[in-house]
Specification:
The complex is a heterodimer of chains A (403) and B (240).
Chain A (H helix, E strand, L loop, with lengths): L2 H14 L1 H39 L4 E6 L17 H10 L3 E17 L2 E10 L3 H4 L4 E4 L4 H5 L4 E4 L1 H8 L8 E4 L2 E9 L14 E5 H9 L6 E6 L5 H15 L10 E4 L1 H44 L1 H9 L4 H37 L8 H27 L3 H4 L2
Parallel strand pairs in A: 3-8, 5-7
Antiparallel strand pairs in A: 1-9, 1-10, 2-3, 2-6, 2-9, 4-7, 5-8, 6-7
Chain B lengths: L1 E10 L7 E11 L4 E5 L6 H8 L7 E6 L2 E2 L5 H11 E4 L11 H10 L6 H11 L15 H13 L5 E5 L7 H16 L3 E5 L3 H6 L2 E6 L2 E7 L8 E4 L1 H4 L1
Parallel strand pairs in B: 3-8, 3-9, 6-7, 7-8
Antiparallel strand pairs in B: 1-2, 1-4, 4-5, 9-10, 10-11
Classes of the chains: A alpha+beta (403), B alpha/beta (240).
């Protein structure tokens, strides 16, 4: 068989029966475009979140959050048992711990500068923040250990917050007002973007945790803290030691539940990837439904085409086409249409994803895997839709076909 | 070249017994023959044509092509034999629509291993006098020209036998004459031709005329130079 000649002939027929080919193609183009686009969205979201997680939460890290059994503060009032001294104890008593950093949080506070007022969260950290929470300053200085010890009235500010309050002025050295407490700006925080909870990490200020507790919140407990380990492999063992130590220090008897939540990297990644499953898998599955519909449409068009082409099949058989060759021709026609449409769909989907990624804030990532998935789906659609019509065509009796 | 021995074919009918279409057909087709098969509608002409063309199977009897019995061959093998040894010409031309003359003529070459298919198709079209219509669609050609394209398609694999089923049936008188002249020319060049026809004039041009009536075959006329038989009715069995 001369396959070049056969393919050339099939290609010509598809060009000449443009409407038929168009309707076969359009479903696949739309389906594959949607598949690539949605997958780019899913992968982009997952990568962005994982980036944030990895940036803020390395694998040798454990977070301890006040509150039993819940992520974050327990309903029914704040848990007040977690203290800065707990973290000092963890750092001094548990093997494998390199350093710790306690943290307190005072959300939604009015910060004033001259006439401007802006509501933002105030975070209290120790001087270890750059090493423990992986965030430093891009200008000026972070607060020092002396600042923490003496509960100094100093702050560092996020870039968006700084722009909002100071405009073009240099914020360093300026004095802002949090409630009745004046705070001197020592530095501007590195850009970080939106965190996994949706909070804008560039629209907040940091003060020494002691300053926040004593001068602003008037409490003696912290909200959470972070523990940095020597070796990522020790995470589970250290987490267990922390749990025991916390129960001991908080004098919990056996019937009482834990009053802190211990969050390991594994737990965080599980939570993030679960959240992304909707985006990464179920949206492309919706595109898959579009492709299934396309397959049914193509199968239908091909079945009608086989009926229209009965004389052609008769002639081809009379001049020497074997049944298998007719089968091959019809199947390859659907596969070629599907694959070509798939290439178009992948191209359009990729272009749309890149353009959308550039004009919006939504991270879009097109991977080779996504493109392969799109083309593979297109070919599968072709095979699925082509098998039955091809079999029908090849089974035609030439005598009847030519009558 | 082709020998049919005791070919029988019948079709089942729901309420009556089977319809016997061909009864004990015996015929030898020799290289260089030009045979016209005549007979009334329903006499079994087309069935005989389909069996000769390896498109249909006989119920019983032997079909020898170049000495080989074809009755046991697979459908793929039969397709190859059709491709290599037989060229079909149909009453309705059966050209692919929206497909140029040259592309139509190339179709049999899709299923062969012949090299240079385009040149072969060009040569075949030139040989039927359509060298200047090669890029035309069937819709742009007259009936006579379409049938010439069909003959070029039949010739393109250089088969031993041309089987033509009512080739002038859809043509006006002048085109019919042209076509008969073309068949004559092919036969003069040594091509074996079997033609089914109602057309007296076409039948007269053939060297031999056989008649089918009620499924039985009889030789009417044989003017093949070495047959020694003139016009007049002869029972087939005697000739074979």
């Amino acid at each position: 068989m001369n396959t070049n000649l056969l393919f050339a002939g099939s290609a010509r027929m598809m060009m000449r029966y443009k409407m038929r080919t168009f309707f076969m193609a359009i479903g696949i183009i739309v389906g594959v475009t949607a598949l690539i686009f949605m997958r780019a969205m899913g992968v982009g979201a997952e990568q962005a979140m994982m980036d944030t997680v990895n940036k803020t939460f390395s694998t040798a890290t454990i977070n301890v959050v006040a509150g039993g059994g819940h992520m974050g503060p327990r309903a029914g009032g704040p848990v007040t048992s977690l203290k800065v001294s707990d973290f000092n104890a963890i750092e001094n008593q548990i093997d494998g711990v390199v350093m710790t950093g306690a943290m307190q949080w005072f959300p939604g506070q009015d910060i004033r500068y001259q006439g401007e007022t802006r509501q933002m969260s105030i975070y209290g950290y120790t001087d270890q923040t750059e090493a423990v929470w992986l965030r430093g300053v891009s200008e000026g200085d972070y607060f020092s250990s002396e600042d923490v010890e003496s509960a100094s009235r100093v702050a560092v500010i996020g870039q968006r917050a700084a722009e909002a309050l100071f405009g073009d002025e240099n914020p360093i050295g300026k004095q802002i007002q949090a409630g009745s407490v004046p705070l001197r700006i020592k530095g501007v925080l590195e850009l970080q973007g939106i965190d996994t909870h949706g909070a804008d990490k560039d629209d907040e200020i940091h003060v020494p945790v002691t300053t926040l507790m004593r001068r602003l919140m008037n409490v003696d407990h912290v909200f959470a803290g972070r523990i940095i380990l020597d070796n990522p492999d020790d995470v589970d063992a250290v987490a267990e030691d922390i749990k025991v130590l916390m129960r001991e220090r908080h004098s919990l008897n056996e019937s009482e539940p834990d009053d802190v939540v211990i969050i390991t990297p594994e737990l965080v990644q599980d939570i993030v990837s679960n959240a992304n499953r909707v985006l990464g898998r179920y949206l492309p599955a919706a595109a898959g439904v579009a492709l299934l519909v396309a397959a049914i449409v193509i199968a239908n068009i091909m079945l009608i085409a086989v009926k229209e082409r009965v004389p052609e099949i008769g002639i081809r058989k009379a001049v020497g086409a074997e049944d298998g060759q007719i089968n091959f021709q019809f199947l390859s026609e659907t596969i070629v249409v599907s694959l070509t449409s798939g290439v178009f769909g992948a191209g359009i989907g990729m272009a749309a994803a890149i353009v959308y990624g550039n004009v919006s804030d939504v991270p879009m990532v097109v991977t080779i895997g996504s493109l392969a998935l799109g083309l593979g789906a297109a070919v599968l659609v072709g095979i699925f839709a082509g098998v039955m019509p091809a079999r029908q065509a090849s089974a035609l009796d030439p005598v009847n076909a030519l009558r | 070249m082709i020998q049919l021995k005791g070919i029988c074919k019948s079709y089942p009918r729901p309420d009556e017994g089977p319809l016997e279409v061909l009864r004990n057909i015996e015929i030898n087709i020799n290289e260089g023959d030009y045979i016209a098969i005549v007979g009334p509608s329903g006499s079994g002409k087309s069935t005989l044509m389909n069996i000769l063309g390896l498109l249909d199977h006989a119920d019983s009897g032997e079909y020898l092509m170049d000495g080989e019995n074809v009755s046991g061959l697979s459908s793929a093998k039969l397709a190859n034999l059709r491709n290599q040894k037989i060229g079909f010409v149909f009453q309705q031309f059966h050209l692919l629509p929206r497909t140029t003359a040259i592309e139509n003529v190339e179709i049999p070459l899709v299923y062969s291993n012949a090299d240079n298919p385009e040149q072969r198709a060009i040569d075949a079209l030139k040989s039927v006098g359509l060298g200047d219509r090669m890029k035309h669609m069937p819709e742009e050609l007259s009936g006579g020209q379409q049938q010439r394209v069909a003959i070029a398609r039949a010739l393109v694999t250089d088969p031993e036998l041309i089987l033509a089923d009512e080739p002038t049936g859809n043509l006006d008188k002048a085109s019919g004459e042209d076509l008969m002249a073309l068949l004559q020319e092919l036969n003069d060049n040594g091509r074996t031709i079997v033609v089914i026809t109602h057309d007296e004039n076409l039948a007269k041009r053939a060297k031999r005329t056989v008649r089918i009536d009620d499924g039985r075959l009889s030789e009417l006329r044989d003017v093949t130079p070495d047959s020694g038989v003139g016009s007049g009715e002869t029972q087939m069995g005697d000739v074979a």
